[in-house]
């Protein structure tokens, strides 16, 4: 099978997420074709098209042959254009070919492994690919736990729980979530136009994960265990220097490959967003949760599909909330720009409909494109006519789904400051596109000047927040969801054992600088995991906490229902009294 159980469970989850071997193979094939298309098509546009002929700036080909008055698209193609490729582009094509071949080899190895996973699904879990979309992940995990006694997937465990499976899949992800939650990563930088942002582009996240988890110089000596040096407090200064040295090498490597990565990033973004723009012209005005926002809002032990479902539920409310903070001055300017641009656009469209030769006039198509784009961009800053201002209600709905609720967000949802805090995690796609395009250039400098300074904090965090579990290896202690040790002290009323633990260890607070999580992070993670995995049976303080929360919710629901019943009876009595009074009045009148 697979050499490591972390990889085994991760492949099982990915196989479930991508709905079987056929879908995985097709996605892999089209990813290869898409990369080849971007490289070859961009090379063709640069070297094989005579733009002077295409734009009617010259009446002859490069060979001196005259061109017909009515030109076809093939007249602009340059024959034997491969001879015009310069050495720099040849190097870029060579590197692209090496990357494509390496990607092909990786896909082949993955498909071999996924074929084994498919056999495991069919023979052991009794799940065919056609049934995949009708099963929840919790049901798959239940079957995985069921075959442990028969197959002994983990040799030194008689039984495994959903938490064991989840912590193997999310071993590294839980560390990263904790680092983001404690604001150790990513660094907050100031960008032109965008201002201060928590910068976590896809490229920077790739570098950080390579540095911390699966690179050859990462803190891990294998898939299960941290290096022994990270567990020895006397060796931490040496580890800091080594990790900073590795970070310096990574920054230099990123700077060397910056031109090639940047060109591919621009081309891939251009083709991708062109397709999105064709489907939805408002794509650049839409918002999405940024990488930083997703990691900040993620619970410990929360799978990708669970996070997606939770954030998707909040999207409509989040979009409506941000739309309510458009400046009146911006609205006035946008309406007038849209009016003028739409006037030019409509007139030119009407003239084109009357006589299509209008398009032959120089720059007419350019004006149509600019005015049409101006109208679409202006619409972003014009609120809907039937919009109702209800910031507090929308924020309540947002918080109910994202599970992140600073008191100020709920109390002052109408303020501009809270709106600015919220849009740090719910960004415009245009801003995120700019960040991704800048990533190849910014990543080496962020790694060297910003992340380099955070290395001591990262090393201390790994040292203080790692526990070793039998049959599981080293995991983030916060992912254990031990509320007695790591819980929010403001929630002690829901779990008496937390209060006892604090009083007994009140004098041992020297090395617990980051042990407790604010905003109930551990408690919310515990409740979310118990909800997503109903077959999981917690023990100790965690079971007591969940039971107390259920009792509290039941009491509040009963109180709400009782209050509604009292209001109904009161309303009924008032109606009966009103009817009796009306009858008496009628008798007196008679």
From TrEMBL:
UniProt protein name: Autophagy-related protein 9
Keyword annotations: Autophagy, Lipid transport, Membrane, Transmembrane, Transmembrane helix, Transport
Record keyword Ligase present: no
Cellular component, GO annotation: autophagosome; phagophore assembly site membrane
Described purpose of this protein according to its UniProt entry: Phospholipid scramblase involved in autophagy. Cycles between the preautophagosomal structure/phagophore assembly site (PAS) and the cytoplasmic vesicle pool and supplies membrane for the growing autophagosome. Lipid scramblase activity plays a key role in preautophagosomal structure/phagophore assembly by distributing the phospholipids that arrive through ATG2 from the cytoplasmic to the luminal leaflet of the bilayer, thereby driving autophagosomal membrane expansion.
InterPro entries: Autophagy-rel_prot_9
Membrane-spanning parts: 21-46, 88-109, 247-271, 332-354, 361-382
One Gene Ontology term from the biological process aspect of the record: piecemeal microautophagy of the nucleus
Membrane topology: Multi-pass membrane protein
Family: Belongs to the ATG9 family.
Main location: membrane
Cellular compartment(s): Preautophagosomal structure membrane
Residues annotated as signal peptide: none
Pfam families in alphabetical order: ATG9 (PF04109)
């Amino acid at each position: 099978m697979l050499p490591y159980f972390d990889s085994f469970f991760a492949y099982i989850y990915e196989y479930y997420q991508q709905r079987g071997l056929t879908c995985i193979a097709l996605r892999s094939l089209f990813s290869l074709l898409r990369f080849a298309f971007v490289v070859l098509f961009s090379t063709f546009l640069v070297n094989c098209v005579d733009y002077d002929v295409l734009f009617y700036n010259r009446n002859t080909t490069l060979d001196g042959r005259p061109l017909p008055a009515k030109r076809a698209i093939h007249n602009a193609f340059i024959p034997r254009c491969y001879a015009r490729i310069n050495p720099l582009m040849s190097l870029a094509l060579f590197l692209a070919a090496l990357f494509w071949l390496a990607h092909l080899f990786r896909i082949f190895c993955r498909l071999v492994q996924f074929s084994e996973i498919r056999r495991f699904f069919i023979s052991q879990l009794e799940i065919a690919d056609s049934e995949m979309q009708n099963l929840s992940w919790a049901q798959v995990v239940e079957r995985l736990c069921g075959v442990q006694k028969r197959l002994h997937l983990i040799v030194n465990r008689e039984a495994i729980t959903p938490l064991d499976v989840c912590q193997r899949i999310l071993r590294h992800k839980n560390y990263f979530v904790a680092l983001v939650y404690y604001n150790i990563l990513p660094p907050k930088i100031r960008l032109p136009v965008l201002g201060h942002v928590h910068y976590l582009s896809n490229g920077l996240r790739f570098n950080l994960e390579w540095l911390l988890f699966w690179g050859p110089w990462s803190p891990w000596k294998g898939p299960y265990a941290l290096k022994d040096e990270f567990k020895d407090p006397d060796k931490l200064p040496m580890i800091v220097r080594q990790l900073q040295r590795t970070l310096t090498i990574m920054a230099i490597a990123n700077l060397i490959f910056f031109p090639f990565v940047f060109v591919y990033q621009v081309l891939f973004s251009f083709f991708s967003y062109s397709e999105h723009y064709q489907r939805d012209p408002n794509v650049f005005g839409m918002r999405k949760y940024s990488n930083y926002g997703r990691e900040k809002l993620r619970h410990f032990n929360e799978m990708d599909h669970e996070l997606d479902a939770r954030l998707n539920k909040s999207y409509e409310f989040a979009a409506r909330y941000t739309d309510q903070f458009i400046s009146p001055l911006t609205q006035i300017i946008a309406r007038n720009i849209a009016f003028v641009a739409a006037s030019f656009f409509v007139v030119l469209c009407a003239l084109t409909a009357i006589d299509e030769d209008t398009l032959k006039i120089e720059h007419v198509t350019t004006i149509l494109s600019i005015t049409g784009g101006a109208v679409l961009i202006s619409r972003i800053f014009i609120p809907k006519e039937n919009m109702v201002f209800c910031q507090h209600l929308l924020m309540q709905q947002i918080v109910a789904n994202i599970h992140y609720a600073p008191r100020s967000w709920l109390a002052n949802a109408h303020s501009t400051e809270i709106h600015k805090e919220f849009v740090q995690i719910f960004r415009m796609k245009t801003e995120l596109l700019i960040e991704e395009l800048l990533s190849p250039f910014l990543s080496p400098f962020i790694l060297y000047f910003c992340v380099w300074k955070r290395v001591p904090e990262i090393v201390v965090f790994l040292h203080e927040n790692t526990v070793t579990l039998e049959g599981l290896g080293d995991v983030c202690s916060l992912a254990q969801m031990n509320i007695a040790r790591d819980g929010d002290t403001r929630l002690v009323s829901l779990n008496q054992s937390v209060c006892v633990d604090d009083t007994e260890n009140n004098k041992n607070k020297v090395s617990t600088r980051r042990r407790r999580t604010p905003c109930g992070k551990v408690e919310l993670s515990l409740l979310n995991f118990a909800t997503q995995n109903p077959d999981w049976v917690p023990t100790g303080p965690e079971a007591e906490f969940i039971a107390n929360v259920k009792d509290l919710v039941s009491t509040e629901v009963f109180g709400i229902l009782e209050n509604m019943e009292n209001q109904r009876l009161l309303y009924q009595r008032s109606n009966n009294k009103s009817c009796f009074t009306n009858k008496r009045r009628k008798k007196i009148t008679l």
